[in-house]
Amino acid sequence: MDLKFTAEEEAFRSEVLDFLRERLPQRIASKVRNGQHLTRDDMAQWHAILNEKGWLANHWPQQYGGPGWSAVQKFIFENECAIAAAPRIVPFGLNMLGPVLIKYGNEAQKRHWLPRILDGSDWWCQGYSEPGAGSDLAAVRTTAVRQGDHYVVNGQKTWTTLGHYANMIFCLVRTATDVRKQEGISFLLIDMNTPGIEVRPIITLDGEHEVNEVFFTDVRVPVENLVGEENKGWTYAKYLLTYERTNIAGVGFSVAALARLKQAAQKVTRNGKPLAQDPQFAARLAKVEIDLENMKTTNLRVIAAVAGGGVPGAESSMLKIRGTEIRQEISSLLRRAMGPYAAPFIEDALQEGYAEAAIGPDEAASAAALYFNNRKLSIFGGSNEIQKNIISKMILGL
User: In the list 103, 153, 177, 357, which could disulfide-bond 219, CB 3.0-4.6 Å?
Assistant: First the structure.
């Protein structure tokens, strides 16, 4: 693969940079750059700006609202957005459910749900993990029993990211118990405002309310909200996970985080010299940068495979493993660079409008929170241990 961008691709990069300078709200970019909390309105505003431009669903076919970009154009756009400190687009509707509906949904579902994903009418969350069914996702126990023209759903989902904002959830549910566990799962679209749904917050180690538990008690879901065929949901779930794992890798976010880390390593001193000149720290910094450059190549290969109509298998698992390890290493090095100023962090400093004098370097406020939050990266989307098993089976046949 030729990694040198063509003149046309460089022109596209210039177009993206102009757009970001003109349309990315600097108030939001400042919050992203400083590790401050983003509100629901912040995320929705950037979603709307991209949709207005026609650049929101950059991996969707043009007939459904995509811009018709090549794999390289997508790579350029995502990297430049991350470097410019644009917020991460909430992926559940756009990057996860959207591709599933495009491939497996019926025409009525596509006509109804896809435009609502684009214009922000629906905020989706993901109902996959359960207590006892995380890495072993096929062990889901939430049941859906058909009664006439509805399914009646009972059970619990956990680690539901931004579920407290969502009005819709796509769920894996068990619709058969007398078959192999992977063969008894279906894929349902559920309105979060349906009677019988309760959302409870989970406060994580970094003090954030980002994830939730969702409980279903006799929740009635119309049969037309079944995606594909009953008991074939495992196929759709695996297809969705290839997109989630690629997204978790976060190449563009690692590029931006590495630039921030390098800047901090020049500002922070140890024994009268910039930390970047410390041999041990410099060696770790160089290694993570090399790893990131290698991952960029893998990322392009995976995106190109998807653009060509394929579904990446082992490649997406490889990208997920290396991507999450790199992001964790960068956040770990930033925390180490900040030294005692990174722990404990001042939670109020992560809020917009915090006016107290900073303690230590500017980067210190969010260093510990970022480190703690990034520990989850190697677990969700299928733990890295599970990904290694997938790679072994798909490549080595073990």
Answer: 153
